[in-house]
Amino acid sequence: RNGVLPELLTLERLTAASTDGHRLHKTHAAVKVSLVDTLVPLRAVAEIRRLLDKQSGEVDMHASKAVLFLRLGPLTWSTKTVDHAFPPYEQVIPQRPANTCRVNRTGLIDALKATQISANEKTGGISLVFSTNKVTARGESAETGTAEDEVAADYGGPETTIGFNAKYVLDALGALDCDEVDLGLSGDLDPIVVRSVTTPDDFLGVCMPMR
Predict the structure, then answer these.
(1) Distance CA 203, CA 193 (A)
(2) Which helix (H) or strand (E) holds 66?
(3) pLDDT tens, 143-155?
(4) What residue spans of the chain are helical by DSSP H?
(5) C-alpha 163: how far from its chain's center?
């Protein structure tokens, strides 16, 4: 929960996964080198992102069980890796959600932000109500009252209400740049799976429900 795990799937495909027990993100990248499974500290991940934002072209990377090295042009950067076992995250990813809701990504983001102002102050909790051809976001707290917003969706399953930390869902949606997303859901106590409609294999987000 304090790091990101890059895994080599093939000699040309790398998977990076992170989780804090409440949500999980997984994405892929093309690589040309062989790597071992390495757990990278979150602080190091933030620094890597900062360096990559300033770098164009290819980056050389080498990893061992103890150290990760990056060569970015004239700069060589390294970090110690985390000496802990990463949880078996694949086990918490729903493989076949009972229903799928297709919705405009920015529309859902706007609905979540509109109701987030009335989310529970301690938990950030809001609810998403999935009903025929729409998703309704609701927030309610004693301090700020109730807020509700809805967005049109392609959904024909049973009406289902699931509670979430609004920030976790927004983070998953914000990691994508597509127009539409598919939300896989099964029940009010089951997690949702967030994927791009156009590139569903490039990124996967799992958001656990709030009970």
Answers:
(1) 10
(2) none
(3) 778 899 999 999 9
(4) 42-53, 105-116, 166-174
(5) 17
